[in-house]
Amino acid sequence: MLNIRNYNLGPLQTNAYLLTGADPKRGIIIDPGMNPAGLIRNIEGMEIEAILLTHAHFDHMGGVDEIRKLKNCPVYLHTLESEWLTNPKLNGSLMWPNVSPPLTTDPAEFDLAEGQTLKLIGMDFRVYHTPGHSPGSVSFLCGNDLFSGDVLFRLGVGRTDLPGGRERDLFDSIRGKLFKLDDEVKVYPGHGSRTTIGFERERNPYVS
């Protein structure tokens, strides 16, 4: 069974997820955002097998450098955003100087692509390429738990007005991939509260 702990990090209240399986001392982290001190306190004594990034905007990768160095763990990111971790213009941290300093870290160790299955913490994570909010946005499905980044929110969708965003791609990702999942799949978004695929398919005003 997947155990999920959520941390709201940084000025944009980004959801970072600490996931563990049968062994509570082995975990992975999805989207370690800015100001990750609270998350770091809770991984003391743990082995972190990987950091998975749904995409490389600054509010989702602000804690990567600190955690990767602390835990010596690899980072996974879609190949279309392979340059974003090293470039503050691409990751957006130059756009909001009142919110974030320019952020950079080393490139990801591993590329992500549509249809991959990652075997981590004794569980399988299927990778869905879900562009639209950003070109390399991905969602991760483990059993009936979906981590959607900034693609699908509770009664909302990700913005498409940032560099590399595209509205048509976003709706294709949601309707063509995420909404084909079962109703009971729980959605853990990059911001805001949890929802389900069934609820969003029926009630989300942006994609109804």
TrEMBL record:
Q: Which residues form a coiled coil?
A: none
Organism domain of life: Bacteria
Where is the chain membrane-spanning?
Answer: none
Q: Which InterPro entries match?
A: MBL_Glyoxalase_II, Metallo-B-lactamas, RibonucZ/Hydroxyglut_hydro
Q: Which cofactor does it need?
A: Zn(2+)
Query: Pfam families from the entry?
Result: Lactamase_B (PF00753)
Keywords assigned: Hydrolase, Metal-binding, Zinc
Q: Which Gene3D superfamilies does the record match to this protein?
A: Ribonuclease Z/Hydroxyacylglutathione hydrolase-like
SMART domains, sorted? Lactamase_B
Keyword Ligase attributed: no
Entry keyword annotation includes Transferase: no
UniProt catalytic activity: 3',5'-cyclic CMP + H2O = CMP + H(+); 3',5'-cyclic UMP + H2O = UMP + H(+)
- Domain (Metallo-beta-lactamase): give its ranges: 13-191
Q: Name one GO molecular function term.
A: hydrolase activity
Protein function? Counteracts the endogenous Pycsar antiviral defense system. Phosphodiesterase that enables metal-dependent hydrolysis of host cyclic nucleotide Pycsar defense signals such as cCMP and cUMP.
What name does this protein carry? Metal-binding protein
